[in-house]
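Our consortium's second objective concerns turning raw sequence data into structural hypotheses that experimental partners can test. To show how far this objective has progressed, the report includes one record in full. It was chosen at random from the queue rather than selected for favorable results. The single chain below, 252 residues long, was entered without modification.
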Amino acid sequence: MRLRDKVAIVTGAGSGYGAGIAIRFAAEGARVVVVDLKAEDARKTVATIQADGGSARACVADVSDSDAVLESVEDAVSQFGGIDIVVNNAGISHPTKSALKITDAEFDNVFAVNTKPILLYARHAVPHMRSAGTGGALVTVASTGAVRPRPGMAVYNASKAAAVTMSKTLSLELARHQIRVNTICPVAGETPMLDKYMGGDPEENRKALRATIPLGRLAQPEDIAGTALYLASDDGAFITGITIEVDGGRCV
């Protein structure tokens, strides 16, 4: 098991990529704190993990709130004895529309959820990693929109680009503590967020998106989970500050 005895926090883990990551980490031996804004979704992921013999607990938190982030970190430490891995996966978007029509509230909400938690989890989790003296791993789930933006998603793309740059900067600041920071940029995937923000005909949306991906399909949670596992485990022990596009060739 590649994460045996590790403690991981995964945000936005009630569904989509986050659930896939949490389930895979638990299968690899990690004890997982499943963080989500929706209690029912978090409990479903925990139930799936426990049914497979894994160890997990649900934590309801607004990851844009510093106190809530601190509570989730303290929960991991008090219940599981420490913290080794944080996956900043929680994310939201705005509906597809012209940048000129995006509201102030949409701008603020997207950056608050997609970018700010990277700083908040570093602020609250890194001191525990440093005191343990065994290093750690922070993984950011961004988007191909950060490196190959498409129209209609200006603020979402910008928030994910900021997430990439913040993660790279943290990788430089934390390397001396053997804490690695890396980023995954998935292409659009089969997650609940896709239809919620794309609008229009769901199947037509999928068809149009698939046409832009050389491998001919959307991302699946398992695709992102496998990459997150590599970056969080000792397999990636000499990897920090990178951005991996998990996109079926979309960004080529």
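The partners drew two points from this record. Residues 7-246 form a domain with the Rossmann fold fold (CATH 3.40.50.720). The mean pLDDT is 95. Both points have been shared with the crystallography group to help prioritize constructs.
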